[in-house]
Amino acid sequence: MPDSDSDPMRYAMLGGDPSSPLEKLEKYTGEVDWSYLRPHYENGALVWVDPDLSLTEVGHAVSIDDTDRVQAWKRSGDLVTPSEPHALHWEATGARFLALVVSPFVLIQPL
To answer: Per the domain annotation, does 16 fall within a domain?
Structure first.
């Protein structure tokens, strides 16, 4: 077994990522098709985020359980749990989204 000085692999401890919480969330953000999101919709885990909001900031609020902000966005219609008419429309149009996983939720914004 190589000693630590000669081992070219440097193993980091989990959680050793020096990124800020917002930078970490950005790493889990990407563009996806509706076909990828449909199972999450069917499981009730999908949350639509108004395009005027920062998806990363909403994800951060959800991840730290900032109930006041999240509830305010829900009351104003900036966060919506999609319904079947939404799903049917997105299926028919082949919609694409920016998505962020904040377990157990998948936050989405239209592209």
So the answer is: no
